[in-house]
Structure formats: structure tokens, C-alpha cells
Amino acid sequence: MLSCISELISREVQDPIDHRTKWRSCSPQTPNDKLIDIGNQNNILDISSGFLHLAGNSLIPETIGKKCLEDAKVLHQVDKKFIPITAGRTLAVIDQHAADERIRLEDLRQKVLSGEAKALTYLDAEQELVLPEMGYQLLNSYGEQIKDWGWICKSHTQNSESFRRNLDILNRQQMTITLVAVPSIFGVNLNDVDLLEFLQQLADTDGSSTMPPSVVRLLNSKACRGAIMFGDSLLPLECSLLVEELKHTSLCFQCAHGRPTTVPLVNLEALHNQITKLGLMNEGSSNNKWHGLQRHKVCLERAVLRLNSAKS
Ligand SMILES: [Zn+2]
Predict the structure, then answer these.
(1) pLDDT 10s digits, 45-101
(2) How many A from CA of 229 to the centre of ligand 1?
(3) Neighbours of 64 (CB within 10 A)
């Protein structure tokens, strides 16, 4: 189904006229011809050609919003990879790994930002850092943020600092500082290179950066490694819980690395309408349902027949 949809979309993007030409070229295929084709089970719900293709545009959901997830009904896990849901009029699938990664990431971020998973590690051997003048100025400008994350630095020669700084600007000299402590995030120590990268980011964002890039990478990787993988079997209850938690994330439609967690597949209402139309057309010409699936009423005679045939 997915490939049908993507094929359809790409075809429409490439050449909108092709759609019409195709429609015309299948005009000898009157609905009656189509009924013969319907005998082939593989063609059921094929929206890339045939009858359902005519309704192709309306079958593909345009968007899926966060609101859709709120009243989502969770179906059984598919292929140990996906969790299908019906959300409003849309059938969508959730990537179980991407969804769990998103849930874990937001939980990890919250723990770091609240300070719960953030600590200081004092270095056994203090570390000398040579900064260009620009780096030294950034270190002073954003001193609070840097200290707050856990990089504790000492400037050299406190007494003649201002004199030296002026001199250094003139000479464009490099400055030396001493790194005394580094941040420890979930027990992982960051280092001087991570500090320089954070300084660069602060400079690029005028100080509005909320999290050092090294911390973002650490959390992304931790969320990914801890998340449910493809191939993991999930009970229906686990699927429901996963969808429930996904609803409460702030960026529920993307994983830690920006890939989608949820893909809308088909607009069920439009599909039902098309199938009903197809059924109505079929009724006049044949007793068989177009899909070969017919709901029979409870029937005593049939039960007797079945019992008899089982006996013989
Ligand atoms: Zn991942």
C-alpha cells in the first residue's frame, strides 16, 4: 500500500497530465471490465491504477495533526516494526523505534534541564587551555551559562588581568586558561573540545543556545540505544502505552534525528465511499461481491450441511 501511494505521489508530481492520459487510456475499461479484474485479489485496494485510482487524490490524507493522535485507536503491531492506528478518518502507521526514541529523548532532556542528570566532575589534573582572543572574550561574555553547565575555568594572572587583556588585544595574542571541572551528563564527562564547540554555538546564536551540541548528541544517542528496536515484539497493551506517551511529547512526529515517527496512509472515509460505489456498481451485474468477501447471515441449514460434510 505504501509503495502504491508513494508511486502515485511521485507520478503526480512528475507529470500531472499523465494522470489524465492514464485515466483516458483506461476508458475502454468500463466499470464492468473492472469487475472482471476485481477477481484478482492482488488488485483489491490498488489505488495506483483502476477504479480506486480515479479517487487517488482524495484517498491520500493531506496532513496528520497532533489532534488526530488524541482519539487514536491502536491496532495490532505489524511485522514487529509498526503500530497502525486509526486517527479520525486517517489510517496511519507509527514506527515503533522512532516513536520510543522521541519519548525517551524528551524524558532525558527534561532530566538534564532540571539538573537531575547533570553534575560536576573536578579534574584530577587541571588542564591548560589556550584560547584565541575571541574565544577568551566569549568565555567572559557567556561565563554564567558555561559555569552553569559545569565547565569551571580559572583565568591566569588575576592581578594584571585587565592590563594583559588590553595588551593582548593589541598584540592579538592567545590567552591561557585552566580548566578545573567539566560537566558530567548521565555520568559521562564532557571535555575541553566540547567547551570550545559550545562557545562557537553561543557566538553563532548570540547566546540563545539552550544546550551544548555535545549534550544534544549524547542524549540523542542515549535515546536511540535505549529505544524499542525493529524486530521487538510488542503486546497490544505496550502498543497502546507507546502511543499514549507519544501523544504527550512536544515533537511527536519526529524522532531524535528528525525522521518521521508517524506516516498517514489512507483517508478511510474516502476509501469507504469508493468501495461503496464499487459495490453498488457490482450489484447490478453479478451476485458476487467485488471483493469476494460476503457476510452471511446465521443459517441453520448451512450449519447442518457443514456438520454433515465434516462427518463424512
Ligand atoms: Zn534511532
Answers:
(1) 666 666 666 655 677 777 777 877 888 999 999 999 999 999 888 899 999 999 999
(2) 8
(3) 19
Give me ligand 1 centre to Cα 222, in Å: 9
What is the ipTM for the molecules in this complex? Answer: 0.93
In Å, how far are 105, 108, 247, 256 from 251, measured between CA atoms? 10, 14, 9, 9
Place of cell 549534550: 215
- Tell me the three state secondary structure of residue 267: strand
Grid look-up 528496536 returns 229
**C-alpha of residue 258 to centroid of ligand 1, in Å:** 10
The CA 118 to ligand 1 mean position distance, Å, reads 23
Distance from Cα 105 to the centre of ligand 1, integer Å? 10
What fold, for 111-224? Ribosomal Protein S8; Chain: A, domain 1 (3.30.1370)
Domain definitions of the chain by residue range: 2-60+261-285, 111-224
Q: Which H/E stretch holds residue 266?
A: strand 262-267
